[in-house]
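RETRY 2/3 - previous attempt timed out on the joint model. Re-submitting the same 1329-residue input unchanged.
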Amino acid sequence: MFYIHCPYCNERRSEEEFHAKGQAHLMRPANPEEASDREWGDYLFFRDNPRGLHQEMWVHAAGCRKFFNILRNTVSYEILETYPMGEQSSVLAEMTAGRERGEPRRAAGAVA
Amino acid sequence: MSKVEVFQQQPSGAVAAESPFHFSRQRNPLAPAKGEAGVIMAERPFLTHLILRGTPEVLLGGVRNVTGLTLPQTPCSMNSKEDKSLQWLAPDEWLLILPPGSEFSTEKALRGELGDGSYAIVNVSGGQTVLELSGPNAREVLMKSTSCDLHPRTFPEGRGVSTVFAKTGAIIRRPDAQRWELVIRRSFADYLYRWLLSAGAEYGITTQER
Amino acid sequence: MTQTNRLNKGGRIDRQRILNFTFNGQRYEGHAGDTLASALLANGVNVVNRSFKYSRPRGIVAAGAEEPNAVMQMGATEATQIPNVRATQQALFEGLCARSTNPHSELLSTLGNLFAPLIPPGFYYKTFMQPASMWMTYEKVIRKAAGLGRSPRESDPDHYEHIKRHCDVLVIGAGAAGLAAALAAGRSGARVILCDEQEEPGGSLLDSRELLDGRPASAWVESVMAELANMEEVLLLPRTTANGLHDHNFITLYERRAEHLGDLVPEIDGRKPARACLHHVRAGQIVLATGAHERPLVYASNDLPGNMLAGAVSTYIRRYGVVPGKRLVVSTCHDDGYRAALDWAEAGHQVVAIVDARKHNDAATGHWVRLAAKQGLQIIYGSAVIEAKGKNRVTGARVAEIDIPEFQTRGSVTDLACDTIASSGGYNPVVHLASHTGARPVWRDDIMGFVPTKMTGLIPTGGATGIYALADVLKSGIEAGSEAALACGRQSPEIDLPEVDRIEIAQAAPLFQVPHPKTTLRAPKQFVDLQNDVTAAAIELATREGFESIEHVKRYTAMGFGTDQGKLGNINGMAVVARCLKKSIAETGTTVFRPNYTPVAFGAIAGPHRRELFDPERYTALHAWHVDRGAAFEDVGQWKRPWYYPQSTGESMHDAVARECRAVREKVGVLDASTLGKIDIQGKDVREFLGRIYTNKWEKLPVGKARYGLMCKDDGMVMDDGVTTCLGDNHFLMTTTTGGAAGVLEWLELWHQTEWPELDVSFTSVTDHWATLMVTGPEARHLLAEMTDIDLDRDTFKFMEWREGDVAGVPARVYRISFTGELSYEINVQAHYAMHVWKKLFEHGDKYGLTPYGTETMHVLRAEKGFIIVGQETDGSVTPEDLGMQWCVGYDKPFSWIGKRALTRPDTRREDRKQMVGLKPVDQTVVLQEGAQIVFEPKASPIAMVGHVTSSYYSPTLGHGFALAVVKGGQKRMGERVYLPMADGVTQVAEIVSPIFYDPKGERQNV
Ligand SMILES: [Zn+2]
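RETRY 2/3 succeeded.
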């Protein structure tokens, strides 16, 4: 049973208060009519399934009813970060910056 | 017609009203607890429940002017004064609970103060009720029902959370050191009434009508 | 025979209190403070069970959770039966009634005796899986024979509790390390839970030979417990097993509150306590002070009653005052094995010999070794017990010199007469909990055991980390407790360790399976897993058959699959695998342990969530009336909805529904429609939002009017429907299906919060706030007119409009919408006043023939009109066009609304999609079965299924059965015949017709 920090309630609550809503940061194409059938099919049906870090969207269903993002390791189930809708993961950003500086990968897990 | 439809939903004449626990009390009349009751349950029926939506900037002044309460902006907190309370539910959502009978006048007054801004006020008085729990074992009964930490260190007076309760949801509030309040949806009232009777049985549980 | 093995003094039992109990029908006596196991041993009971595969006699081996043999079926009555109770963990109480789980297994005693030598590993997979159809039959026999016990056939008279807890520090285990950790954490002011699975806290300190501060260790236990009990923020949970450790430090604790009190939980002060309680704990830090299990040695016939763990022998002597035999041989490879001999000798019984696998020079420096030598006990060095002799009890031990690296014996074999063999191969740290979330423990050669791998929030300490010297254990416990407290932001004060004599310990020898003069395959059986009858030979065979992964060997041999999860045997099994594969144990690796650590009663898992509290029941404000009226109820989601109202004369459902249908079509009926989901939507952009979420148009709906809407997912499939009303330019009320309400609200929030936060719109559920009374039928207007000040004139209050006004003295919002096809008024009042209005309706309605109707009648009436029910006509694969509802799709709306783009995908454009149609059975008396498959060619082979019946009823109005169905390309097949082959061999025939069976022009609702 996860213990999840809701970025809006600003505290941790038990998993039973939340619903998992799948992969985070999916964008609905701005002009669906211009999307090809393949593009639209990808948007509807295809999702990442990484071993390692995964960005997921959850909703605090029994609490504040707000949607937010989680950065989670799918191997250890460790939650590295939760952050509000519309923001980007600072942990991932730092890892990317670190790699660009030539630093070794953090132990937290491979970035998919 | 106005842009948002507000109407007096309460009858002016004598009409028998039934609170959400009406059926439960009839079906499960509670024998007095053997010995000292560890838990005392009391419904606070027919209170005014209004949901306020909007940004604090939009709501703060108007709400204070009409209710005398400050909009709490710390998550999971509430401000109370006498028989009024205003609870944070989400960054853009609050629950205002007032004495019975004030739903129409309060909503009208709030809309008058807040004017044409972006906000919403919804009367939910018929759909929920407040159940008060007190007694030496009230916290244990709640601990059987919620995964929230109710220890005084983490659940001080003035805190309120919306959470899973038994197999449904409820709002748990701690208005003062002696009492806990549950805000319960009408349709789940009987289930939760039976649930609480079961959870309180080992401590002795009784109801108190006010 | 009474307590022949009980010592005259000693032990922590209450000799004044005699407790009577029965085992396998035989009466015995024991004392308060006994476990069932110690009482059985006191009475000289040798055989407590039969093994499940070979039906061999088995005795008590251990004194704790690791016991593989003494697994009992408890209960004096059918209703109080509890399977899989370990006698070593069951406190004795007056009237306790226990039976062997396997007194003498029916199938396998025969099979086992006759064919035992022939039963190879993999026997079950090879034998019982064929033919597949017989597995169910085999399974029953095997389960019964396999020592799994049986559940009661009668309802459990006791009750069970659940409670959820939080703490800073959870200390698991109240032995030396756990007590020290709890003390350190407790004194810091942290919120601490200390749980221990035994009857008394103290763990190995309760039978320790060592002194703390010059006093018996148990005195220190008492003083620490007294201090902890006085700390406000410390919760002590005795008789509580930490059974599962889940993600993010979520732990289940199984507290047996009353299992030591009686067969049935006794009343205390007029209240009946729970039999057990399951605590769901979220801990900041977990101190794992679970100690270590002693590891037996694997030698021939090591399963005979009388073969025991050395530590268990000490425990029975020192804690329970029971010497489980007369003449003892100890077989060990480390110092601690000697303690059993010292205790045995002190009890005045004969120690025949201590057989130590180590050479004299390697062992003699050890404190206990020297003590034993000083006391003149015979020690045989460089040797081991290679085989036990006896039939139903050990009668002798065969001893030989052994060469561990070469895995062979040397020289001749000596036979020693004895009745008890105590063996010890070292310790296995209890790492089970640390591997429940998938982490693998790590092998350490220096301690010859697996220790927990590093995990966030978990601090292993003491025996669980391979620290066994008491002084070190205490130190480790205090460090762990302080570290845990510090991690929670609390500082522990300095804590004075109790003074313990530091004793010399000689290096242990790595011995697991003892070599035998014969090969493993030819030697008498050397048991690795006693509960599942897995031998060293079986494991060796498995490796020869090519199973190299420990996980495969485990599954092939069933090692560790018993209710004891292989607590005693697994490491020895891995050692055998390692030996056979010529690898190290570290390379072989361990298997993963899974919750639960020991079996948990189902009652405790269910807790209070049973019977009428199993699932929430949602009631409308009118529920009491429905109950009084004798309604039959239907579950819709969690709601209890009146299904139909049979008359008290014993009216059948069919008759009741027909009567209700006629009342609505001919007079007037009323439905409690309060369960419909209702969402209040306010904001400047509501119209825009609705236009994006619904398939149809909303920008021009005027205030005062309502419109039906269809909602799709972005794949174009219908997900919900309902009528939405414009209350004000910035104010709408959306209704949803009863079951879809919560999902739709979350759906609206999803799109608003994640894609269109710029829209000014907010959603609030008002489902419970409004009660909804649907008055419908030709007389509806006349009835309502008597009760309201609303002008009901057909030209001023038109179909699909709403008005506010007074109904029976209550302010109401009345909608002219219809789900029956008749003239209808949906009265919405605040739920507090619903009962008043409902009763008034019947006061006025009598003369109009007002009839309450339920969901079944609602279904018949709507189906006659071809109105869909989402979830019945749809199943997530049906588009608006499949339903023939193009009229409800705004193809030219400027925003590409949810679901639109998908409607032009090739798959959604297929001509042969399943489309909704009406079905009229050719035989008018037939009511087709819902779910029945539809075919075009009943004689074809293979037969192609082209659709199914989604709704089917008898229509009292039409006088025949009718159905709604989805059929491939059905909308272009009007008038064609389809066939429905049924399970009973009959093939029904039906004609495809329009789904609107009644009043196709919709004139009746628009009067
Ligand atoms: Zn939240």
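Chain C touches chain B through 64 residues (CB under 8 Å). Closing ticket.
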